[in-house]
Design goal:
The protein is mainly alpha-helical and 262 residues long. It contains 13 helices and four strands. The strands form two sheets. A two-stranded antiparallel sheet has the order 1-2. A two-stranded antiparallel sheet has the order 3-4. Helix 1 packs antiparallel against helix 6 and helix 3 runs antiparallel to helix 6. The longest helix has 35 residues. The chain starts with 14 loop residues before the first strand and ends in a 14-residue tail after the last helix.
């Protein structure tokens, strides 16, 4: 059940509130979105709420990266062992990896520019959208939340910040892949061994090829939760302002430029 049902008379809608989350258009910096796609293909598209494309690029990155041993090569290059970095690469997979990697960066940049234009047009149209959704499994509604809390929960476990602001699809995706990265990297085992003072064993048990995925995962979860909390707060304030204006403000009320309102 929604508090408003769109009649599809608008050419463009600014936002959509469903039991799975709040999807909205807002201005984004295309360079930042492209940077996240460069950090990890798929992240830029997830920030744009283009989930299917983001999931496809993310899974491609993980599978082909592991098969081509890109992360292993990066680790060797960080250590200054360039010969081993070249030796470990599997060119059969690497030649497939590069074009898709570049496509993810280009497509996220292009899509951001297009969506910014669409947002400016929706601002002029000012069509109404639902702000409350009630279903058998979930309830979602526009309200104000603390962006610092979103970052804090993301720092504990990526995905919790998304649950806090009701980005269900992103939350489940981030949490599931975090478990996969933890499992194959043996990061949790290394932490336990580190607490026990067994530093060498903690280092030996780690799988660096999978471990290298985790920092980007944490960074994305924190940024995504913070940015979407801020934008959801703006959307809530604008929706509330429009509601108060339509239902409580006098039709004769006017603000004249250069004059004080009494």
């Amino acid at each position: 059940m929604n508090n408003y049902t769109n009649d599809n008379t608008a050419r463009r809608y600014k936002a959509h509130v469903s039991i799975l989350g709040t999807t909205q258009l807002h201005l984004r910096n295309p360079y930042i979105i492209a940077w996240w796609s460069a950090a990890f293909p798929g992240f830029g598209h997830l920030l744009l709420s283009k989930y299917l494309r983001g999931y496809a690029l993310f899974i491609w990155e993980v599978v082909v990266n592991i098969k081509a041993h890109v992360n292993s090569s990066m680790i060797y290059s960080f250590q200054g062992n360039i010969d081993m970095a070249k030796e470990v690469l599997d060119t059969r997979w690497l030649l497939m990896y590069i074009p898709v990697y570049l496509f993810g960066i280009w497509d996220s940049y292009r899509t951001t520019v297009d969506l910014n234009k669409v947002y400016l047009l929706t601002e002029r149209e000012e069509h109404r959208f639902n702000s409350f959704s009630l279903g058998a499994l979930e309830i979602n509604y526009l309200d104000k939340r603390n962006p610092i809390l979103a970052v804090m929960w993301s720092a504990f476990i990526p995905g919790l910040g998304q649950l806090y602001i009701h980005r269900i699809l992103t939350a489940f995706f981030v949490i599931i892949w975090l478990v996969i990265f933890y499992y194959f990297s043996h990061a949790q085992e290394a932490v336990v061994l580190l607490f026990l003072g067994k530093i060498k064993e903690a280092t030996d048990v780690l799988n660096p090829e999978w471990l290298l995925f985790i920092p980007s995962h944490y960074g994305f979860a924190a940024y995504d939760s913070y940015m979407n909390t801020v934008e959801n707060n703006k959307l809530f304030e604008k929706d509330l302002r429009n509601h108060l204006t339509e239902n409580y403000q006098s039709d004769s009320f006017k603000i004249l430029k250069g004059q004080k309102v009494k």
